[in-house]
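Request: Not sure, any thoughts?
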Amino acid sequence: MLAGNMICLVSAGFLLAIVLGGALSLYGILGAMLVFTCGAGMASPAALTKAISVDPDHIGSAAGLYGCAQMTVGALCTTLAAVGGDPALSAALVLTGAALLGQVAFWVALARERAEASLGS
């Protein structure tokens, strides 16, 4: 989960660097997006599994809440990517910010999970 999201963060950072450096190219953008998508594909199933395994009696509700949150964040990021005069810069900033926020959220959640596990032992 952390590794997949770190891949997203690195590829979004690379996209931001090529946008800021003025080195935009089709291959650079496609490469960064391919790597970002692979990272998201690694992180998302693990996050969903963690989300729905908190309380086995409420798996359906947890899955629905996860899906709702995912769509809400997607809509927010899409809206933010449309802000500004440079669409490439806006998209790169939103991807980098979302990946960074996701990484921090994973760290906090896993630290809490470890703390609860050590208290329960």
User: Anything to note?
Assistant: The chain has one domain: 2-120. DSSP finds four helices and no strands in the chain.
